[in-house]
Specification:
The protein has 82 residues and is mostly beta strands. The protein contains 1 helix and 4 strands, in the order βββαβ. Helices cover 10% and strands 21% of the residues. It has a two-stranded antiparallel sheet. The protein has a two-stranded antiparallel ribbon with strand order 3-4.
């Protein structure tokens, strides 16, 4: 069984950055699907009601990879059992 996740890159989609648009996990690996983060205050109430930017800031990361980038989505992890 292969022991590594294979990254799939395409120069025709991004000629500037070394960026993987997809990946494959080896057969037999365990996949983990990550849930989204909710824009909640410490007391459990919804933060920034009616404010997209405020809610995104509440759940956003501290820095993104490219200038002018507004969002990034990560969703699946593969755990390789050894």
């Amino acid at each position: 069984m292969p022991h590594a996740v294979k990254l799939i890159r395409s120069a025709s989609l991004s000629g500037v950055a070394e960026y993987a648009y997809a990946s494959t996990a080896p057969a037999g690996s365990r996949l983990i699907f990550l849930a989204g983060a909710c824009p909640l205050n410490e007391d459990g109430s919804t933060a920034a009601v009616g404010d997209y930017a405020g809610q995104a800031a509440k759940v956003g990361v501290t820095v993104l990879g490219y200038n002018d980038q507004l969002v990034e989505i990560e969703a699946v992890a593969a755990v390789l059992d050894s």
